[in-house]
Amino acid sequence: MQVSHVPEHFMMLCYKARNHWHGSADLQTKEGAMPEPKTHNATLTGKVAIITGAGTQGEGTGIGRAVAIVLATEGARVCLVDRHAASAEVTLTQIEQRGGSAFVAIGDVTQREDCARFVAETEQRYGRLDILVNNVGVATPVLLDARDEDAWARVFDLNVGSAMLMCRYAVPVMIKNGGGSIINISSIAGIRAQGSLAYGPSKAAMAALAREITVLYGRQGIRANAIAPGHVLTPLAMSLLPETMRVKRKNVGPLGIEGDVWDIALAARFLASNESRFIAGIELVVDGGVTAIGAMTGNALIEAGAQEEQV
Question: Both ends of the chain: CA-CA distance in Å?
Answer without folding.
Answer: 20
